[in-house]
């Protein structure tokens, strides 16, 4: 059961998310959020000292627990790297295309050119995830499970392949929430392409 303080925090986050989506970050004031949440000014500022901190908390709150669970799928001891990547990719897309996460991603993109928030969210999300994936792929390359290549570039390629079938409909807001079967099938296709490029070289195949 949530404590009273956690309940208030969640109510503020919910109200702020609604107002940000309606008016955008720059046009939203803390007073707008206070009115929507129904709390006094002192209460709002005791939880979130600034609009920027509140927005970042929304971004983190929408994905952090799922994000860590997604990274946990990258187990370097797992022998079948293709299946490990399918598991990771399925968790990643299941996170990215949750309805509340989609809403936050669109909000971040819409504000990216008008403030520093885009950069901050990029560092919290994509930069951190690509670094973690690159670390995993680098270790897999060292063990011969993947061919030698630049792990950072490989991680970017993997992420691009995983989202390739979904990113345009998402950006143009015509994407219906995909089913788990649809996500898994697209991930399997993406990982198949990735392994064709980065899978271990067969015996007798010259390396680049």
TrEMBL record:
<keyword id="KW-0805">Transcription regulation</keyword>
<feature type="DNA-binding region" description="H-T-H motif">
    <location>
        <begin position="29"/>
        <end position="48"/>
    </location>
</feature>
<dbReference type="InterPro" id="IPR009057">
    <property type="entry name" value="Homeodomain-like_sf"/>
</dbReference>
<dbReference type="GO" id="GO:0000976">
    <property type="term" value="F:transcription cis-regulatory region binding"/>
</dbReference>
<keyword id="KW-0238">DNA-binding</keyword>
<protein>
    <submittedName>
        <fullName>TetR/AcrR family transcriptional regulator</fullName>
    </submittedName>
</protein>
<dbReference type="InterPro" id="IPR001647">
    <property type="entry name" value="HTH_TetR"/>
</dbReference>
<dbReference type="GO" id="GO:0003700">
    <property type="term" value="F:DNA-binding transcription factor activity"/>
</dbReference>
<dbReference type="Pfam" id="PF00440">
    <property type="entry name" value="TetR_N"/>
</dbReference>
<keyword id="KW-0804">Transcription</keyword>
<dbReference type="InterPro" id="IPR050109">
    <property type="entry name" value="HTH-type_TetR-like_transc_reg"/>
</dbReference>
<dbReference type="Pfam" id="PF14246">
    <property type="entry name" value="TetR_C_7"/>
</dbReference>
<feature type="domain" description="HTH tetR-type">
    <location>
        <begin position="6"/>
        <end position="66"/>
    </location>
</feature>
<dbReference type="InterPro" id="IPR039536">
    <property type="entry name" value="TetR_C_Proteobacteria"/>
</dbReference>
């Amino acid at each position: 059961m949530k404590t009273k303080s956690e309940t208030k925090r969640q109510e503020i986050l919910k109200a702020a998310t609604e107002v940000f989506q309606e008016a955008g970050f720059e046009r939203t004031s803390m007073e707008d959020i206070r009115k929507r949440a129904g709390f006094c000014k002192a209460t709002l500022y005791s939880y979130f000292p600034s609009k920027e901190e509140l927005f970042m908390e929304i971004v983190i709150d929408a994905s952090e627990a799922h994000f860590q669970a997604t990274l946990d799928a990258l187990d370097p001891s797992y022998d079948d790297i293709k299946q490990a990547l399918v598991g990771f990719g399925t968790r990643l897309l299941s996170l990215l295309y949750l309805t509340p996460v989609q809403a936050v991603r669109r909000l971040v993109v819409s504000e990216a050119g008008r403030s520093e928030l885009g950069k901050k969210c990029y560092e919290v999300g994509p930069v951190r995830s690509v670094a973690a994936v690159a670390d995993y792929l680098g270790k897999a390359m060292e063990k011969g499970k993947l061919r030698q290549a630049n792990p950072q570039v490989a991680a970017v390629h993997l992420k691009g392949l995983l989202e390739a079938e979904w990113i345009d409909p998402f950006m143009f807001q015509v994407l219906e929430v995909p089913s788990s079967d649809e996500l898994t099938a697209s991930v399997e296709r993406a990982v198949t392409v990735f392994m064709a490029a980065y899978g271990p070289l067969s015996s007798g195949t010259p390396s680049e």
